[in-house]
What we know:
With 160 residues, the chain is mainly beta. The protein is built from 2 helices and 10 strands, in the order E-E-H-E-E-E-E-E-H-E-E-E.
Amino acid sequence: xxxxxxxxxxxxxxxxxxxxxxxxxxxxxxxxxxxxxxxxxxxxxxxxxxxxxxxxxxxxxxxxxxxxxxxxxxxxxxxxxxxxxxxxxxxxxxxxxxxxxxxxxxxxxxxxxxxxxxxxxxxxxxxxxxxxxxxxxxxxxxxxxxxxxxxxxxxxxxxx
Length: 160
């Protein structure tokens, strides 16, 4: 029997992990070709919000495989991935997040939210998932560990 029969084929997604206390780490996450949550491939947010306390990342600068504890990951940045969900039920919440390291992230949270959870405050508190996704104003996507958020503020879309 071939060893290939036991392999789970995955694709690599380039990311920048901001790890405490190391700082930024360039690498790749391994994503399943099919998401457990629906159509399309697995998303980085799914890995970060899974029950496993560690993730696997290929650190490209050191060319080594590393296992990072999710609690030490402040944020993960990556390029937008085409979402299979083009639902008109998506709620957009323009906001600014201030993190413990002093950095500020500005963008839009875009998620399917029930009517009772469409305010920023409700969204932040509605789930036990440790990471949230924000589409940054300057482009890109940032997955933020809620434990590192000091302050979240709703902002006007026209506010520049």
